[in-house]
Amino acid sequence: MLKKSKSYFVMKSLIFLLSILSLLFLLIALIVKALKGKPIRQTFKILVSIILGYSLIWIIFYFKSSYTTIPFGTDVCFDDWCATVTSIDRENELTKKIAGMSADSARIVLHIKMSNHARGIAQKPSEPRVHLIDAKGNLYPNSAKAQQILEQLRGTQIKLDQRLALGESLETQLVYVVPKTAKGLKALIEEGPFITKFLFPDDQPVFVVKQ
User: Fold this and answer.
1) pTM of the complete model
2) Would you say which domain of life the source belongs to (predicted)?
3) Low-confidence stretches of the chain (pLDDT beneath 70)
4) For residues 31 and 36, what is the distance between their CA atoms, to the nearest angstrom?
5) Which of 22, 79, 177, 182 is disulfide-compatible with 143, CB 3.0–4.6 A?
6) Which of 151, 57, 142, 71 has its CA nearest to residue 107?
């Protein structure tokens, strides 16, 4: 099981929150000074310094971060909600059924298992998502059209953000359409709203889908 350090996440969130609050305070001060006809140069310089400083540190963390390969079945946990890729398959049946898609595309089905590791409460993840990433860094989301075909063949699949009771585990399947030429495909599990992208990046565990 790979669990994101809660204290580390809190620290990153706190730094981001303090930076945003400082920027808001300075922006308000800037507007007030401008309206009163007072000099704003010093306040503006401090505001720009905070933006540039945070951006520089973010870039440093970004280039230091990397993808860490983990075996299928290894839980990736965000607090007490965990998910893993248990297996993959390339569905020939789907390839024949999905019309209107390029013959140069490959269909890949990920088998995902979600579980609740909390000690006393149900868990509902915040905006969970699973992407495929190739060696060039291209991101491939779950294909809505291919997913419809999958569910016609295999039944309705459970949503990733399904609320899980205490100790409950559920499995689902997600289908992706990628170019057949794509190499180094990896599956990345993420959780949290888009704003978390502005937190300092760190190493991310991935599952190898295709070399």
Assistant:
1) 0.83
2) Bacteria
3) 1-7, 91-103, 211
4) 9
5) 177
6) 142
